[in-house]
Amino acid sequence: MLYITESQAKSAITLKSSLSVFRQAYLQCNSKHLSTGPRMVQTLDALGNKGQWLTASYPAEGMFGTKFSAIFPHNVEKGLSVVNSTISLYSGKTGELLATVEANALTAMKTAGSAAIATDLMSRKDSGTLAIIGSGLQAFDQVLAIREVRDIRTVIVYNRSAEGAKTFANRLKDVEGFDAEVKIVESADAAVAGADIVCTCTTSSTPVFRGASLRPGTHINAIGSYAPDMQEIDENTVVRAARIVTEHVDGLWAAAGDILEPFNRGVIDKSKVDGSVGDVLAGTVAGREAADAITLYESVGSAALDLAIAVEVYRLVSRSGKDGATV
């Protein structure tokens, strides 16, 4: 059994090269060669800490796997990671454990890569201003991934902690070749009001900006809400969206508080969600049909994408013959 650490996983694959892995994974999902299983989220205590279990099967690669994430929102106050994840890979022939992969970096890469693909399919081609709400690991990779698909000239940052926003901005400026202007604003509404693309990267249970602040033609990547009781974007945003896609439609209706809240109130029906990113890639669902349309990618996580990137890392590490530890 191979144990792959965070640093080994990060050195095995780049964010740019991962995009082709995720595109292929979406198409494999559409052709039923890659599939997800049940999701389980368990609240662990009164503080709102949660455990999340995801499963997926990849017959085309002869593997299946599980991903476990511990979500502890108050870790931010301790200077610790809010989310800690591992992926376990098993043989589809024998059921044997093949590898355990530390997956914080891969999760951020997966989430950012999927959002970048959705952005490429749904945002205006001339989009040049990106608003980021939140300043954690997910937010950082969102910026880098979206710059792979759009010519981002300005990044607008909002974070509840002004110091956190400054640190985030400085991290971006330290990235080799990063030439976009970075602006820090004092409210989320100010951030989205000037943006072509908006990414919400928080663990908030209540909406972080007002949908009325969005200007026509904006594309939103909502990646923070992963449970029915979380609502990172407001009802107005959902109603205004002309197109809504997600990783897997069934998974959205099981977990996306952003969409479930207005649905449960009767404001929208299930026809409001148009399909998956894979459907847009396959050409069965349109991405953007009008320049002034508001589009929304609602992310709740995909074990299929987690499995696909972990399988690729496992393959690359195994081939290298030097990284990873056999235990």
TrEMBL record:
Belongs to the ornithine cyclodeaminase/mu-crystallin family. This is Ornithine cyclodeaminase. Pfam families: OCD_Mu_crystall (PF02423). It comes from the Eukaryota. It comes from Paraconiothyrium brasiliense. Signal peptide: none annotated. InterPro entries: NAD(P)-bd_dom_sf, ODC_Mu_crystall, ODC_N. PANTHER family: KETIMINE REDUCTASE MU-CRYSTALLIN.
